[in-house]
Description:
The protein is mainly α. The protein has helices at 2-5, 12-39. The model has no long low-confidence stretch (mean pLDDT 82). It is built from two helices and no strands.
Amino acid sequence: MTQLINIPLVSWTNGTIMMVVFGLVCIGLVTALLILVNGGKKKDN
C-alpha cells in the first residue's frame, strides 16, 4: 500500500519541456511577424 503514496501526480520534467517549447514557438512567431512587417517597407525615391 505504501507504493501508491509515492506516485507523483505531476511530471515536472515533461511540463518544463512543454513550457520551453511553447516559449520558443511564441518567440519564433513574433520574430516572423516582425520580419514580415518590416520587410514590406518601400524605399522613397
